[in-house]
Design goal:
285 residues; Rossmann fold; alpha/beta; 10 helices
Length: 285
């Protein structure tokens, strides 16, 4: 993919809408060549309406899985994702709600299991971020909201899903390059992403005896609705230009990491690990 900048754009609401982005992200996995890696499996993907979550959900469907997607209120994006999953001949359940609410997490998992029959793969992907130039001025409510969505919601979803996950199941958590490099204007967001790394490693150790693998993915700058919903138009236009590859990645370039980690045949000897599709940044850790 060529070096690129994007047309200046911003969205005044979060989470953002993929339908409003120009250009639209590459998130339909159109060039993916499936091989039945997830045949007969059922996956639940939070934030599955757009961006990375959409590409993961569609990729899972192409590999033979039925998929439940959770989203906050981006109905148009969610229904588009559902149509694409069903076009692959797979079943899809789309559920709207706030994963920061433990009750919603319980009900969403219950609905997914009732509708799709089981649960084999949990992808904790939903997140939000808000720019703050001066940490001394960061609103308490923003910090609490970011932690509630990004890490507490991940814990509530996992807690709700665990009774349904059997030996061979997989949990995949979305962290971020900011967990390793930090970000001076996204301190609360980066902190939640660091917590996700620790959560992934700790949960992996806790579930070893149950033979449930827990891994993470730490994307770098990816062209998703979170970008115009977080930054001003000028910064959005230059998104990803600072990466070693001098461009933003696309969701379709990230989703294969999740497919790999979801497949017991491919990643049976991996747990407690984090993959780094980030455009060439070496972060270690």
């Amino acid at each position: 993919m060529a070096d690129q900048t994007f047309p200046p754009q911003a969205q005044a609401h979060q989470p953002g809408r993929e339908a409003e982005m120009q250009p639209r992200p590459a998130s339909a996995m159109e060039t993916w060549q499936p091989s039945g890696k997830l045949a007969g499996k059922v996956a639940l993907v939070t934030g599955g309406d757009s961006g990375i979550g959409r590409a993961v959900a569609i990729g899972f469907a192409k590999e033979g899985a039925d998929v439940a997607i959770l989203y906050l209120d981006e109905t148009e994006d969610a229904q588009d994702t559902r149509r694409r999953i069903e076009a692959e001949g797979r079943r899809c359940l789309a559920v709207a709600g706030d994963i920061g609410d433990p009750g919603f997490c319980q009900q969403a998992v219950k609905r997914a299991v009732e509708r799709l029959g089981r649960l084999d793969i949990l992808v904790n992907n939903a997140a939000e971020q808000h720019v703050c130039e001066d940490f001394a001025e960061i609103p308490v409510e923003q910090v609490e909201r970011t932690f509630r969505t990004n890490i507490l919601g991940m814990m509530w979803m996992t807690k709700a899903a665990l009774p349904h996950l059997l030996e061979g199941s997989a949990i995949i958590n979305t962290t971020s390059i900011t967990a390793y490099k930090g970000n001076p204007t996204l301190i609360d967001y980066a902190s939640t992403k660091g917590a996700i790394v620790a959560f992934t490693r700790s949960l992996s150790a806790a579930l070893e005896k149950r033979k449930i693998r827990v891994n993470g993915v730490a994307p770098g700058p990816i062209w998703t609705p979170l970008i115009p919903a977080s930054f001003d138009a000028d910064r959005t236009a230059q998104h990803g230009s600072g990466a070693p590859m001098e461009r933003a990645g696309q969701p379709d370039e990230v989703a294969p990491s999740y497919i790999f980690l979801a497949s017991a045949a491919d990643s049976s000897y991996m747990s407690g690990q984090v993959l780094h599709p980030n455009g060439g940044s070496v972060v270690n850790g």
